[in-house]
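Researcher: Final request for today, and then I'll write up notes for the group meeting. The sequence and the SMILES for S-adenosylmethionine follow.
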Amino acid sequence: MVPASPPERSPVPRPPGTYAPGVESGSLTGHGAFVFGEGFARLDTEWMTDDGITAQVRATYDTVAEDYAAHFPGTEPEAAIDLAAIGHFVTLLETGTRDVLDAGCGTGRMSRYLTDHGCHVQGVDLSPGMVAMACRDHPDIKTEVASITALPFPDDSFDGLFYWYSIIHVADDDLRAVFDEARRVLRPNGVVLVAFQAGEGESEVGAGYRMLGHDVTLVRFHRTADQVTRLLQTAGFLEAARMVRDPLGGERHDQAVVIARLGDLCLG
Ligand SMILES: C[S@@+](CC[C@H](N)C(=O)[O-])C[C@H]1O[C@@H](n2cnc3c(N)ncnc32)[C@H](O)[C@@H]1O
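Model: Predicted protein-S-adenosylmethionine complex:
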């Protein structure tokens, strides 16, 4: 269901999944992100299994997929420096084919951006509802349902893997599997880009969607750039670049992009 009148957009473009302090409740500040006042709910997920979290993430994005696609058709929420980081990632892809997996592609808006910048893109997402929107809005880009923890592709399939605010819903225990899969499906010298809200801990961030009438719960995990870089190193990647910027506009958190390349030492 698309709201009759869309929530107010922030005057300052913001990256995905961010929250803004001091802005009136119900404002939409980034894809899948809504301002709901100063409160930032904490969530105790000790009782949940990882599978429980995954099921919850899938169900939530299935529920909100149409609204998400309607509010964020393109890269309007991204800051110029975010797009510059993506540009750097694209230049690091060495082969002429630039085969890129948009890992956690959602409704496909960033798949479109990468395609428009010379990449051959395949998308995967956990949520069939989000994939349905991607197929509807970007029918020329192949997109399928899969988890970034277990990719349905042979070894050496891609030049680049692109995680644009998708690891934010993956629990620590599963993140190692995500980057092990990245190493497996990447070709030699392959490159990963990982974008996320920087910080620590986990939060329940579904309130904005609930304000649109959706009965959902959504957990988000925060990491520092150092933590993500260390996990990538463990999986065999060497840091190539990082961008950590202060919050813009009403964002609550620093925003981070880590780019890393497969090292010479193949741990697989
Ligand atoms: C904040 S949205 C970002 C979507 C897209 N990258 C964009 O920028 O519009 C997070 C996306 O990650 C997906 N996701 C979360 N966990 C995933 C997993 N384990 N495997 C694949 N996709 C996942 C969600 O279904 C959702 O579409």
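Model: Confidence is low (pLDDT under 50) at residues 1-49. The helical segments are 50-71, 80-92, 109-116, 128-137, 172-185, 207-211, 225-234.
Researcher: Thanks, that's everything.
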